Amino acid sequence: MYFPFFITYMLIGFGISGLVFFWALKNRQFSDQKRAAFLPLQHDSESRPVRPRRIHRLEALALLAMACLGLLISASVLAFSLLKAR
Q: Residue 51 falls within a domain, yes or no?
């Protein structure tokens, strides 16, 4: 049976999702929900383009690496379970 592999895979996914959720709570990502509803209505013509800082580029690269790793793990679990089913 290959169910333990899927259960482990799901538990790891839930664990990572929980960690990301609690990180967002700790960093107050959900603190101002009413203001976010009016952001598209504001017109700010004097804003100049923001140059991304090095930390933002590193965060983007880390997210891309995690996404690729997640896809690789998903493909390996699927391949392993299909090979074990034979």
A: no
Residue 1's pLDDT band, with cuts at 50, 70 and 90, is low
Q: Is residue 34 part of a domain?
A: no
How much is the pLDDT for 66? 93
Residue with tokens 């140059």: 51
Q: pTM above the 0.90 mark? A: no
Rounded-to-integer distance, Cα 3 and Cα 84, Å: 11
Contact 81, 5 (CB under 8 A): yes
Domain count, the chain: 1
In degrees rounded to 5, what are phi and psi of residue 16? -65, -40
Give residue 76's domain range: 1-27+57-86
